[in-house]
Design goal:
The chain is built from 3 helices and 7 strands, in the order ααβββββββα. The chain has 155 residues and is α+β, with helices and mostly antiparallel strands.
């Protein structure tokens, strides 16, 4: 994969440093871990779901944390050492993992469920009132003055 140089963009933009830093880190991460497998789905206009295949992990073995626009999912399972049992083939992975997802501004974790070996993490984008579009009424200045004159004449 070719490296992309963002230096010209740093010189001509203001306030996008964090975006370019994220792009740089993604560009360098060619050997990204593939365990556990996951899906990212859009379930609504402002709703998302991350689904991770965590077969063999229970609720007590998993930890979900959000900090500074990052969602971190950790899984750590204690070794099962049953007496008199010898594992001849281990095909179900139960190794520890840590998976991080970068979240956009105003994206919050709504909840998480574990069902049939799949961890579902529901996310929602909560747009603050100050950032929502609002309609501005336009007042005709000519009519406003006419109403004021009529009001003064009636008084």
């Amino acid at each position: 994969m070719r490296a992309i140089d963002f230096a010209p963009l740093y010189r001509s933009t203001v306030g996008f440093d964090r975006l370019f830093s994220r792009l740089d880190s993604l560009n360098q991460g060619e050997g990204a871990p593939s365990y556990p497998p996951y899906n990212i789905e859009r379930t609504g206009e402002n709703a998302y779901r991350v689904t991770m295949a965590v077969a063999g992990f229970g609720e007590a073995d998993l930890a979900i944390e959000t900090r500074e626009n990052a969602l971190t999912v950790k899984g750590e399972k204690a070794e099962d050492k049953a007496e008199g049992v010898e594992v001849l083939h281990r095909g179900i992975a139960s190794r520890a993992f840590e998976r991080r997802f970068q979240l956009a501004d105003h994206v919050e974790v709504k909840g998480a469920t574990l069902k049939n070996g799949l961890l579902h993490i529901d996310l929602v984008r909560v747009i603050p009132e100050a950032m929502k579009p609002r309609k501005i009424d336009i007042v005709n200045a000519g009519n406003e003055n006419a109403r004021q004159i009529e009001a003064n004449a009636a008084a």
